[in-house]
């Protein structure tokens, strides 16, 4: 009789529940026993090393027919079948993972006629998927909505439907408690004036009443949030932790920074610090030009995701580069400081002030209507400094990333200092 640790068995049960709740086809999952076995093998393999290098791999549960039967108009992965399948085991994953580089390929697994899980081939996806985040435009190789298990580091697994994350586990914990604050109305409301200002900067012929194509306001929101999502994913994956603080506009020149922060590096305040703002406006202007050629009345984020345009692709690449630039600055001890316009103010910021925060409220719903009071000193130094700043500057927002990958959004909301555990 096969023996499994209880941890993968628990993960399999939660995964099946999450999979169904998200509306993914249940027939794409293996049987319960096979799913427990698949997760157990990936978990055990993640604890192994090959020539002093930790095993890091992606496994997709799919048959040759499923992988080769994708819609022909989609960029398809290159599938290579083994002449003889190999039994799925931690040992075989350790021996094969180097050939299926984590960023470029996945190992294909299915259930054979005897009911055993076997590795039957390589699925070459390329590296474009690495920069994909939820809701972003994606020009890379498509995957079917089958189960994909990523062994990222020892004990850290991510289960997905194709590229869509379903469940994550880390250090023995199933990461299922939390919210995606980007979907809330409160965080969208904090940046409404910024979105309006960006739209007003579009060339006049794009916003006049005589022009049929207009930009949906949510387009600006979704574009900005895709960058922040990518930043958070990169910081989590680096395992260094970090703190990003978004101050009210004007904080770089009204004395706020001097009162609250001591910088390792503070940028000279000029137009160069509004790099991101300018990229957003240029991207939207080009997207509107493409939308006009398609005779769209309103440019939405969904429309933009379908565009295939060389100039937009160049802007996408610039935003990806910017998304990597911010985590680089967050690796320096201290906080990365921006304002609501995403003006780069400085990094390595030490948060000043000696008034301790005694209580922090943990949100139990995405809008923060219901909260539970917690002791603020139960968190680490980075968290407590963020609490102190947000408590003193009520219009600021802090995003704290722990070394273990835990992320908290911190804001003063409904008269209370509140944090939202982030579940991407």
Provide key terms for this protein.
alpha+beta; 35% helix; single chain; globular; 424 residues
Textual characterization of the structure:
The chain is built from 13 helices and 22 strands. It has 424 residues and is an alpha+beta fold. The strands form four sheets. Strands 12, 13, 14, 16, 17, 18, 19, 20, 21 and 22 form a ten-stranded mixed β-sheet that branches. The chain has an eight-stranded mixed β-sheet with strand order 4-6-5-3-7-8-9-10. A hairpin with a 5-residue loop joins β20 and β21. The longest helix has 22 residues. The N terminus is likely disordered.
Lay out the secondary structure:
Elements (H helix, E strand, L loop, with lengths): L5 H16 L10 H15 L2 E2 L2 E2 L2 E5 L2 H5 L9 E10 L2 H7 L8 E7 L5 E8 L22 E7 L2 E6 L2 E7 L2 E2 L10 H6 L1 H9 L3 H4 L6 E2 L1 H22 L3 E6 L8 H5 E2 L2 E2 L8 H19 L4 E2 L1 H6 L3 H21 L4 E5 L4 E8 L7 E5 L7 E5 L5 H12 L4 E5 L5 E7 L2 E6 L3
């Amino acid at each position: 009789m096969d023996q499994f640790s209880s941890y993968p068995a628990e993960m399999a049960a939660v995964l099946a529940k999450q999979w169904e709740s998200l509306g993914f086809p249940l027939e794409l999952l293996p049987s319960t026993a096979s799913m427990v076995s698949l997760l157990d093998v990936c978990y055990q393999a993640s604890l192994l090393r090959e020539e002093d290098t930790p095993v890091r791999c992606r496994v997709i549960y799919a048959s040759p027919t499923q992988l080769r039967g994708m819609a022909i108009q989609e960029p398809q992965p290159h599938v290579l079948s083994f002449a003889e399948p190999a039994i799925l085991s931690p040992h075989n994953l350790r021996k094969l993972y180097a050939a299926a580089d984590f960023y470029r390929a996945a190992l294909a697994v299915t259930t054979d006629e005897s009911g055993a899980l076997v590795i039957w081939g390589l699925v070459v996806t390329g590296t474009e998927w690495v920069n994909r985040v939820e809701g972003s435009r994606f020009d890379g190789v498509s995957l079917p909505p089958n189960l994909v298990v990523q062994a990222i580091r020892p004990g850290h697994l991510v289960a997905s439907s194709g590229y869509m994350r379903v469940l994550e586990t880390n250090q023995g914990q199933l990461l299922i408690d939390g919210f995606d604050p980007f979907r809330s109305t409160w965080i969208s409301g904090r940046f409404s004036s910024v979105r309006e200002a960006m739209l007003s900067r579009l060339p006049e012929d794009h916003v006049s009443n005589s022009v049929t194509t207009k930009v949906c306001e949510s387009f600006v929101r979704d574009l900005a949030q895709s960058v922040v999502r990518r930043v958070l994913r990169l910081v989590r994956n680096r395992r260094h932790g970090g703190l990003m603080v978004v101050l009210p506009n004007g904080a770089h020149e009204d004395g706020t920074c001097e009162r609250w922060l001591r910088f390792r590096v503070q940028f000279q305040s000029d137009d160069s610090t509004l790099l991101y703002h300018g990229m957003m406006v240029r991207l939207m202007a080009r997207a509107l030009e493409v939308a006009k050629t398609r005779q769209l009345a309103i440019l939405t984020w969904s429309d933009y995701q379908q565009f295939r345009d060389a100039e937009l692709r160049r802007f996408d690449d610039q935003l990806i580069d910017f998304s990597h630039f911010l985590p680089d600055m967050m690796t320096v001890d201290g906080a990365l400081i921006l304002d609501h316009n995403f003006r780069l103010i400085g990094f390595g910021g030490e948060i000043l002030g000696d008034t301790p925060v005694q209580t922090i409220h943990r949100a139990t719903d995405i809008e923060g209507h219901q909260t539970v009071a917690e002791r603020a000193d139960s968190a680490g130094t980075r968290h407590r400094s963020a609490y102190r700043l947000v408590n003193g500057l009520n219009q600021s927002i802090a995003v704290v990333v722990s070394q273990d990958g835990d992320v908290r959004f911190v804001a003063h909301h409904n008269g209370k200092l509140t944090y939202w555990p982030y579940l991407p």
